[in-house]
Design brief:
Blueprint lengths: L2 H13 L2 H8 L3 H15 L4 E4 L2 E4 L1 H26 L7 E6 L1 H4 L2 H12 L4 E6 L2 H9 L5 E6 L10 E16 L10 E2 L1 H6 L3 E3 L4 H12 L8 E3 L2 H9 L5 E4 L9 E6 L4 E9 L6 H20 L3 E3 L3
Parallel strand pairs: 3-4, 3-5, 7-11, 8-9
Antiparallel strand pairs: 1-2, 5-12, 6-10, 6-11, 6-12, 6-13
């Protein structure tokens, strides 16, 4: 058994396709097929059910997949750390974050990190927090910013989480046609009377807002529901209504301004990594930059509160 065989097996199992896997691995398809056949022979078990255009894992393949991923993650970490010991002239950081943080905190952190360590390769994955925790768990990411808008624990018990910020949810309104007077604080009852543009119900933030309305005995009907954060903010910019969004979602949005809620609704921004993998030098350096950048954001915006001492 060797690393090339394991890497080939993982890619074929992940993509369910030999041709696409061979393209990613930059090996000829016949060579990839031979690698996996040799691996099956050495293990004495069939790993893949092969059918024209359709690849599935056998029970033995299902058992091997998570172990192979862990082995390859550790090997990559060793290689990265050996490179990093040269003083961060080389290395790699695979960072994940939700979209609202990618355009705000993460953008500033990456700019600062790249200026200090231009030789380190940076890979950014943009997704929801639950997807990011899944990617961390299987070794597809080194570190991620994740958010939670309530006290329920997120999946991924093997992850370490470092709380960075408590971020208030604010009411966004158009700068050109504001529906809220500047400098005012909005109550839940007043918010219920405004034309509300709501996020899709799949968002935790929507659930948090709906819960606040229910607690006040209110059930406002949104004038419009947006499929994603960017769409909701664009509707607000056009003056169609207001929206309850995280404070950092308004970063670099001059067509929008915000009002704070009297009933404080918040989400926690945390830095997460796998508890069974020691972060390498480059990942640790990125973690420090993210911590410092979060503290700077908290100093600039009264709707952000630092949780890291």
């Amino acid at each position: 058994m060797n690393l090339e065989q394991l890497r080939g097996f993982v890619e074929v199992a992940r993509l369910r396709h030999f041709t696409r896997a061979s393209e990613i691995l930059h090996v000829a398809q016949p060579s990839l097929s031979r690698q996996i056949s040799t691996l099956e022979h050495e293990l004495g078990a069939l790993l893949l059910h092969r059918a024209r255009g359709h690849i599935t894992l056998t029970p033995a393949g299902e058992a091997l997949m998570p172990r192979a991923q862990r082995i390859l993650t550790e090997v990559d970490a060793i290689r990265d750390e050996m490179d990093e010991l040269a003083g961060l002239r080389r290395g790699r950081v695979r960072l994940g974050a939700p979209p609202t943080l990618c355009v705000s905190l993460v953008a500033e952190a990456i700019s600062a990190f790249h200026a200090a360590h231009p030789g380190v390769d940076l890979h950014l994955a943009e997704a929801g927090s639950r997807t990011l925790t899944d990617q961390l768990a299987v070794g597809q990411l080194d570190i991620a910013l994740v958010t939670a808008s309530d006290t329920r624990s997120m999946p991924g018990a093997s992850l370490n989480r470092m709380p960075l910020l408590a971020e208030e949810l604010v009411v966004a309104t158009s700068t050109a046609e504001p529906l809220i007077a500047e400098g005012t604080t909005v109550g839940i009852a007043e918010l219920a009377e405004l034309p509300l543009i709501a996020l899709d119900r799949s968002y935790d933030l929507r659930a948090t807002t709906d819960a606040a309305f229910r607690a006040a005995g209110l059930a406002p009907a949104p004038v419009l529901e947006g499929p994603e954060m960017d769409a909701v903010l664009r509707f607000v910019e056009q003056g169609l209504g207001v929206a309850v969004v995280p404070a950092m979602a308004l970063t670099n949005r001059p067509a929008l301004r915000s009002a704070r809620l009297s009933a404080k609704l918040t989400r926690t921004v945390s830095l997460a990594h796998r508890s069974d993998v020691t972060p390498g030098v480059a990942v640790s350096a990125m973690r420090d930059v993210l911590v410092d950048t979060a503290a700077e954001f908290a100093e600039r915006d009264p709707a952000l509160h630092s949780l890291h001492s």
